[in-house]
Amino acid sequence: MNAPADLARLHPAVAPRPVPESLLAALRERFGAQCSTAMAVREQHGRDESPFDVPPPAAVIFAQSTRDVADAVRLASDADVPVIPFGVGSSLEGHLLAVQGGISIDLSRMDQVLSVNAEDLTVTVQPGVTRRQLNEELRSSGLFFPIDPGADASIGGMTATRASGTNAVRYGTMRENVLALEVVTASGEAIRTGTRARKSSAGYDLTRLMVGSEGTLGVATEITLRIYPLPEAVSAAICSFPSIEAAVRTTIQIIQLGVPIARVELIDVNAVRMVNAHSRLSLREEPMLLMEFHGSPAGVQEQAETVQAIASEMGGNDFEWATTPEERTRLWTARHNAYFAAVQSRPGCRAVTTDTCVPISRLADCLLASVDEADASGIPYFLVGHVGDGNFHFGYLIDPHDHDERLRAEQLSHDLVSRAIAMGGTCTGEHGIGLHKMGFLIDEAGDGAVAMMRTLKKALDPKNILNPGKIFSL
Amino acid sequence: MNAPADLARLHPAVAPRPVPESLLAALRERFGAQCSTAMAVREQHGRDESPFDVPPPAAVIFAQSTRDVADAVRLASDADVPVIPFGVGSSLEGHLLAVQGGISIDLSRMDQVLSVNAEDLTVTVQPGVTRRQLNEELRSSGLFFPIDPGADASIGGMTATRASGTNAVRYGTMRENVLALEVVTASGEAIRTGTRARKSSAGYDLTRLMVGSEGTLGVATEITLRIYPLPEAVSAAICSFPSIEAAVRTTIQIIQLGVPIARVELIDVNAVRMVNAHSRLSLREEPMLLMEFHGSPAGVQEQAETVQAIASEMGGNDFEWATTPEERTRLWTARHNAYFAAVQSRPGCRAVTTDTCVPISRLADCLLASVDEADASGIPYFLVGHVGDGNFHFGYLIDPHDHDERLRAEQLSHDLVSRAIAMGGTCTGEHGIGLHKMGFLIDEAGDGAVAMMRTLKKALDPKNILNPGKIFSL
Question: ipTM score here?
């Protein structure tokens, strides 16, 4: 990786553009109490779960409608001022930081489920709806939205980062599950991409261009998603293994046999210990797979039998079944809290997280080499993974005031990403590029592809006002 | 629909740009015998299965490598001359027609399967590989590529049109199954989009932007696809129904219950008759569903029982099972030959085909109204559909010399598309826009979205040389 990118990973380029007083006046006039310039509000909207500290945006607009978003973008565009869409603030990669200044557009009040089309298995929501809220509202219909990145993220944020998480191995990611969007463009115009049809060959795939564009090409104001019938039968199980390798090789074989497993999550022994401490559990302190099976009763049993046979061959212990919904919820809550459990295990620390995803045949090689390196570093860390997709996360728990430790963690991350890219993988399976992985994107995609991305950005946002300075420098 | 679009559907705007003799000389020098200006070769590359007649391209380059494609594009770009990628010529929408002149780049000699990564369930191919060839080459590995548009199309062409077909209800379309591409851009540079990782959040989704762009944004020279383990058990069945409505309502219920059926194809009584005559079959002359189930033996049986119960409730006859691979092949070949069987049923005719796709809840309303209109018109027609996706095709069999009949067929098509769009559907589920559906794209996507597509096109192809005049006028 080149040196400037290394520096960018530690210190993003911060160059706030001027925000004229006339813009703030116009925003106050248009938005009244929906516009805040209070420092506490600005600071809350100027940070996320990334390890960066950057000055906050100049103002926050609490949008309540597409019209609000369009007007805010138009006013900002007239003044050449950046806008940064904000959902719940759970980005890990610095997406929400005002590195070029500007205003934050908070979408959390756009929290309506606009329509549930149960017969078509689609739902249309505003971007501020969170995934848990959506599933609450769907519950009575016998349907659910499977994408589950752990955090109770907003659907808008999940769309912007092309999120996925624990169920993606069976149900796909936001790439596969966003059918259509309403998007406010850089000029403040609302357009629609896609229809509610399951498939289409009607022109360029603007929906997929917007999904994962991290707020740099438009602001999604309505999102149409695929939803699924709640499976007739669900069962979850944990299985401990004598080594990470045994757990990973079990996963690889499950996938290669085509078992339609719904979730298969790796949790390393460090993460098990942290989760036990945080969630008052007594999970066996060994590497484990946390699995879930969806289907008909017979289908679930068939899947579970196949997986148990594979696990047993690899030295796995007996499955411990979580048969009631309450037990399942407790297990998955523990898994989802792994990040917070880890951060709390070292008071005052921050996590440098990785998000590599490799072809499944390379998963063991890639992951095990990085475990060795992390163990050798002496830096506390945890490892969890959506291993059915070949995606896993190290979290290196660093003292943010210890420059040397931070550098060593970044070196671990760098070595892991380089290995993943060399193996045909990606630097980010689901978190996005943001500020933190801009150098890696060049390594992975190459100058030609990144140049094409820049060309698209310049064409759709000629004033560079939509979340500028993210994905690539511009 | 606006009047100019109506005219475009009958007579595409043809305005050949000059092809300087110096370009032809340069192509001959660079490509030798791989460059042909023979009229027979040009004419073969200047038509497809669409009902349009347009003057042929000025030359045909038979590319054998990415380098060949890049050099051909660069030479054409230097002379401001269009290039049109050509696979096997099976487009139904005029994609291959040289409406602005230029040269055809024939990719059929780039027919190598470059790598099969069985453990990762991926394969990388050159664009001239056809789907049947690919499955032949995969057969010994126990894997298969499910996307099946009927014609033995090239993978490059299927990528360009975002093709799908009979298996999409279970396995998705080219949108879901292309993982990565090598693409030659308008400047003749080769870039890579995507990796072999199953998922990624690394920047803009250039892969999905290229898939379905109909050769207007780049020429795919390598394509990495998802492949699947051959199912342990496969069974196919046909079921006749007293009415199209009964067949469609059976399909809707199968999908809404979440049955993972692999194929569910509607064939109307006209198509059954034509197929019987063409393929010497004796299928019962009633509307029918042709279905296939993939899975474990127990899973397949479970699916089949569920579907039989639904069909029986809707008045369907008993299933007739095709249990041997030979019987299945015969059935699916008959289905795939429906188009040719239909065209041969009226000597000298051409087919005006439709490709609407609607949300499944609207399928019966949309389809039945169009059946009534087609019956009332007196024009011979057939109807087949990938109804599990809400996608179906009318083929109106017209005398190409009968202007009035052509107009009436276009009116039927227009009324159907308008109905589908009003129901939240799309004018094209899998064939693409090409020349024939440009007016419909505006109706469906709106001026704002089409303007965004034009902006993208101008940014990536400033000289407008990549298959110009397709998707939208430019």
Answer: 0.96
